[in-house]
Amino acid sequence: MTLFWVALAWLAGIAAGRLVRQPGFAWLLLAALAVGLAVFFQRDRRLRLPLVCTVLFGLGGARSVLSLPTFDVGLVSTYNDRGKVG
After folding, report:
1. So what's the pLDDT on residue 68?
2. pLDDT per 10-residue tile (average), the chain, 86 residues
3. Which 8-state DSSP code applies to residue 42?
4. Sign of the C-alpha dihedral, residues 27, 7, 12, 68?
5. Where are the domains of the chain?
6. Is residue 75 classed exposed, middle or buried when 0-12, 13-18 and 19+ CB atoms within 10 A define those classes?
7. Which of 4, 19, 38, 61 has CB 3.0 to 4.6 Å from 51, enough for a Cys bridge?
8. Among the listed residues 34, 84, 38, the one whose alpha carbon sits nearest the alpha carbon of residue 61
9. CA-based Rg of the chain, rounded to a whole angstrom?
10. Rounded to whole angstroms, what are the CA distances from 3 to 52, 53, 76?
11. Neighbouring C-alpha atoms within 13 Å toward the C-beta of 34
């Protein structure tokens, strides 16, 4: 059952990264904060799964945002599907 929640957190992070549009460092900051809390509360078994899910949620959001292409006006592919030429 743990794998289900971990995978669901990862997928929810990817979906949230597409919807919320925060910068990648914000998602990584969320994951780092959750890792810090997991280290601080490492003996509390009740917090272990929620913190791991929060880490994966943040990493999924960062993965989603950082995988989006950046468009450079110098590249011809930037102008694909932009209408008629000239």
Report:
1. 83
2. 94 95 93 95 92 96 89 70 71
3. T
4. positive
5. 2-66
6. exposed
7. 38
8. 34
9. 18
10. 11, 10, 43
11. 19
What are 37's two structure tokens?
């809390």
CB neighbour list of residue 30: distance below 8 Å, 6 or more residues apart = 54, 57, 58, 61
Helix (H) or strand (E) holding 48: helix 45-66
Q: What is the pLDDT of residue 73?
A: 64
For residue 40, the SS3 value is helix
- Shortest CA distance to 13 belongs to which of 28, 1, 33, 2? 28
Check: CB of residue 54 under 8 Å from CB of residue 6: no
- How much is the pLDDT for 70? 74
